[in-house]
Amino acid sequence: MAGGRHPMKITYSVGFKNDGKITALELQILVDAGIYVDVSAAVPLKIVAGLKKYDWGALSFDIKVCRTNLPSRSAMRGPGELQGSFIAEAVIENVAATLSMDVDSVRCINLHTHTSLQYFYEDCFGEPFEYTLPSIWSKLAVSANYDQRTKMVKEFNRISTWRKRGISRVPVMFHLTLRPTPGKVSIFSDGSVVVEVGGIEVGQGLWTKVKQMAAFSLSAIQCDGTRELLDKVRVVQSDTMSLIQGGFTAGSTTSESSCEAVRLSCNILVERLRPLKEKLQEEMSSIKWEMLILQAYMQSVNLSASSFYVPSNNSMSYLNYGAAVSEVEIDLLTGETKFLQTDILYDCGQSLNPAVDLGQIEGAFVQGLGFFMLEEYETNLDGLVLQDGTWNYKIPTIDTIPQQFNIQILNSGHHQHRVLSSKASGEPPLLLAASVHCATRAAIREARKQLLSWSNLDGSDSTFQLGVPATMPVVKELCGLDVVEIYLKWKMGKEAVGTKAVLGRARSSSLVAVRYAISPEKERKQQQMQCSQLVGSGVARTTVSSWL
Fold first, then answer.
1. Do 448 and 461 contact (CB within 8 A), yes or no?
2. Structure confidence at residue 76 (pLDDT)
3. Quick check: 64 pLDDT over 60?
4. Which of 86, 89, 138, 214 is the least buried, fewest Cβ under 10 Å from its Cβ?
5. pLDDT band at residue 74, thresholds of 50, 70 and 90?
6. Per-residue DSSP letters for 445-483?
7. Would residue 471 be called left, alpha or beta, if left means φ above 0 and alpha means ψ between -120 and 50 degrees?
């Protein structure tokens, strides 16, 4: 559940030009840490990392971690980065609203160039070809048919009274750091392989990737039967006795680090087995994996190897990129939000396992959808949590995820400082769920614009604040609690004006009919009498002339 994240109060000042280019951003952020510190001390750094996804020109911030009477907050998938990324989107949305500009245009003009990237991410900006966000941004617009769908949304909003749609495109830029990680590989006499790593398998596919890496690395010995080596590999859970520096599973990079530690261990074993393999190959034309391992046992070759992967300075951290387009539909009568479609394009480098990474992207996005739209986490005055079960704490279900969910993994080529050129997929896609929140905001903006027209008010009310989560009551309130009453008054007033116009036209027709019913002689005498009464008045002459 995502409801236990750190609540924050953000006050900011932003400077920008008429074209939407932001030149400076100053923030004051208060972070509610709860009664105990827990990991809250690390949150400010993570907030700033999420904030820097756009080129702000000059960026200044003052972040304070506050102790309150509420339950303490802990780390949960993208702690700090999720809030920081959303703060960035909220600033962009408000700048666009102030300038009455299309928000997507404001996002485009404030995306980083590789030059500005070097100022905001000094230690991990990478080479120019590694900065894939601009190409992802443009490719997603084509694959998601963004421009055409934007026109369709506008047309839908024009003809629909009680339902409004919104569409939004949002980028993600995520700073990832690899940590030192141990690994151990042992080969038994029957040729089976047991692998131990410091990471914990929690459904993220860590063990699947580790098994693949072990089979891939050991196959370098080039024996018969190594193609079936994956079935012989088994990953077991380690403890602090077998791997004393196991560390912790977090930050989306445990799979990469563990795979590299396993690869180093397998390389040691391959080097130990290679002389024996070459000797046996001289005696026979081919040698099977099981025979090689059995001979190694008989000749006392050490078939257990441990390693401790320590990333170098140029491979310790890197940036990952992605973008999402989401389209939603809101019901003005109830506040219900339907998630119609989401398209994601995400850079996985050269994925270690595309199926696992695809599942990670899907799961992270849906979890973020719950945070932004559904999972309300309220407390009473004593700090006790009110949402204590599924009756009043709503997580995403099969009927709340996007009705059409399209995900593409970008193969961004070779990265010499990455583990087999791969990139992480655990946490960054979580931030892309902000696209749903922004699309909901766009739909509400259209609803409020319609409400103003019904109230006979000019201008637009586009600088409203849409909180997190944007639940049904929140959406309904922003669309207007009395929207039906206002509509009926507007409709009745419009009909009344129409009735008056009809009656006016009918009265004029009656006068004309009466006038033509009078005889010409009698009509001439009446005109002469009226003219004699109004002689000397220019206005009277004009009036009579017009009447005649």
1. yes
2. 86
3. yes
4. 138
5. confident
6. HHHHHHHHHHTT--S--------SS--HHHHHHHH-TTH
7. beta
User: Tokens 């103003």 sit at which residue?
Assistant: 452
pLDDT (mean) for 499-526: 50
Sequence-separated (6 or more) residues with CB below 8 Å from residue 271: none
Task: In whole angstroms, give the CA distance from residue 462 to residue 444.
Answer: 9
Report how far apart, in Å, the C-alpha atoms of 496 and of each of 484, 492, 499, 500, 509 are.
18, 6, 5, 6, 20
What average pLDDT score do residues 300-329 get? 94
With the C-alpha atoms ordered 496, 446, 475, 396, is the resulting torsion angle positive or negative? positive
Q: For strands 233-237 and 163-177, give the pairing.
A: unpaired
d(CA 376, CA 384): 14
If you average pLDDT over each of 25-29, 397-401, 407-411, which comes out highest?
25-29
Q: Which two tokens stand for residue 203?
A: 């459904």
Please tell me whether the peptide bond between 469 and the residue prior to it is cis, using omega within 30 degrees of 0: yes
Nearest to 477 by CA among 444, 516, 520, 511: 444
Both structure tokens of 376: 């309300």
Helix segments in 284-353, DSSP class H: 289-298
Instruction: Give the residue from 264, 249, 291, 285 showing the smallest Cα distance to 75.
Output: 249
Catalytic residue among 256, 375, 427, 446: 427
Report the C-alpha gap between 476 and 330 in whole angstroms: 9
Q: Say if residue 440's pLDDT is above 90.
A: yes
**Assigned token pair, 124:** 């991990």
- Collapse the DSSP code of 287 into the 3-class scheme (helix H, G, I; strand E, B; otherwise coil) and give the result: coil
Nearest Cα residue to 474 out of 374, 325, 341: 374
Q: Does residue 329 carry a catalytic annotation? A: no
Output the pLDDT for position 71.
81
Q: What token pair was written down for 426?
A: 């655990």
Contact by Cβ (8 Å): 6, 79: yes
Residue 329, classified by CB atoms within 10 Å of its CB into exposed (0-12), middle (13-18) or buried (19+), is buried
* Structure-token match 């002469």, residue found: 528
Q: Is the pTM of this model over 0.85?
A: yes
Structure-model confidence comparison of residues 531 and 40, the more confident one:
40
Q: Is 536 helix (H, G, I), strand (E, B) or coil?
A: coil
